[in-house]
């Protein structure tokens, strides 16, 4: 018979959090409840924001390499025209170009995702949960569909905040010393990100031109990843519960981090491989945002995909897929470990403060007048 503590570990009672463009997941350990603590939400957002920024910074070079591999100018800029060899000095130079914009945007974007996902998930669960005669709760909406709807809603909000930073980031990642010195008609900032931003000074609205492309990549990614994560996580938790194994507090925390990290890595790797063609199209559209072509001449996502397939075949649509899957798996493990550890640390600090306050109140009440 499962205990209430064990029931809190079931997949239908875990919550998933996502890092925009690098989908990350982590569970929290309390039962379904439509009303939840604001302090707890702040605690989750603090630990999630810290983990998301640190993870972005550590895996950013892989993202830069992926963008350069998917760039339409990859063969001409990063390969030698005569020998066909990769120009390693060019390809591996400036791997942190544009990191500032995405790191700064990640905090509000991930915070918006956390809040929207939790609210959507709790609302959908509350709406589609019925009380049975045995006093147990049963959801009429399939759990994978519930998770997908909540994550897609949150991703739509998050992508709107992240799109300008993503446009600046990807265009900064492919800037070379020659491209920044070709035009000297007007003075430009020395910072690469500011140089890219300078190109949008007369057309700031075009910073959101890649919103549909980013959303078109992230929605399938999150829609595929969340059910896979919940399934893998649930299977592992059910297996552990079936063994009736007892663990101390520290062992439970370590085990939870490891299991969650493995499940997230598996889900993220599968999702990243499946959605690589959409990611290639998204990269091409983002890199075209700084072009001066008229809107009517700008190709849509379907046209860009057909163009890539026509020129490079299936290989072109999956360019950078292996690298993307590799660093996605790494980022999932890093993020989940940091998020889970940060959440536990902040929770313990909050508990200590509450115990100290309660002790002070007890001493004050027991003091003689």
From TrEMBL:
Gene Ontology CC terms: membrane
Bilayer-spanning residue ranges: none
InterPro entries, alphabetized: MCP_dom_sf, MCP_transmembrane
tRNA processing among keywords: no
Superkingdom classification of source: Eukaryota
Localization: Membrane
Membrane topology category: Multi-pass membrane protein
Solcar repeats: 39-123, 142-235, 255-345
Family that this chain belongs to: Belongs to the mitochondrial carrier (TC 2.A.29) family.
Protein name per Swiss-Prot or TrEMBL: Mitochondrial carrier
Organism: Aspergillus fijiensis CBS 313.89
């Amino acid at each position: 018979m499962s205990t209430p503590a064990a029931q809190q570990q079931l997949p239908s009672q875990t919550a998933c959090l996502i890092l925009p463009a690098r989908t990350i997941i982590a569970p929290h350990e309390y039962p379904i409840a439509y009303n939840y603590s604001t302090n707890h939400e702040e605690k989750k957002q603090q630990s999630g924001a810290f983990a998301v920024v640190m993870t972005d910074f550590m895996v950013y070079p892989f993202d830069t390499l992926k963008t350069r591999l998917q760039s339409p100018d990859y063969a001409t800029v990063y390969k030698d025209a005569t020998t066909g060899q990769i120009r390693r000095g060019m390809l591996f130079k400036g791997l942190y170009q544009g990191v500032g914009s995405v790191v700064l945007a990640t905090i509000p974007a991930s915070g918006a995702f956390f809040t929207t996902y939790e609210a959507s998930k709790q609302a959908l669960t509350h709406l589609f949960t019925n009380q049975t005669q045995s006093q147990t709760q049963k959801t009429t909406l399939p759990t994978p569909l519930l998770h997908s709807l909540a994550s897609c809603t949150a991703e739509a909000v998050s992508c709107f905040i992240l799109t300008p930073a993503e446009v600046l980031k990807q265009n900064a990642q492919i800037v070379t010393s020659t491209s920044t010195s070709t035009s000297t008609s007007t003075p430009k900032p020395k910072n690469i990100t500011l140089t890219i931003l300078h190109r949008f000074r007369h057309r700031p609205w075009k910073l959101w031109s890649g919103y549909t492309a980013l959303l078109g990549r992230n929605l399938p990614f999150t829609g595929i990843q969340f059910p896979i994560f919940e399934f893998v996580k649930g299977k592992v938790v059910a297996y552990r519960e079936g063994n009736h194994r007892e663990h101390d507090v520290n062992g439970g925390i370590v085990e939870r981090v490891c299991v969650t990290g493995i499940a997230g890595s598996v889900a993220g790797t599968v999702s990243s491989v499946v959605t690589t063609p959409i990611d290639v199209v998204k990269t091409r559209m983002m890199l075209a945002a700084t072009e001066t072509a008229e809107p009517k001449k700008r190709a849509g996502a379907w046209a860009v995909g057909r163009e890539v397939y026509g020129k490079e075949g299936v290989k072109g649509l999956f360019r950078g897929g292996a690298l993307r899957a590799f660093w996605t798996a790494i980022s999932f493990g890093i993020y989940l470990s940091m998020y889970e550890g940060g959440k536990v640390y902040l929770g313990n600090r909050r508990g200590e403060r509450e115990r100290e306050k309660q002790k002070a109140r007890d001493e004050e009440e027991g003091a003689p007048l």
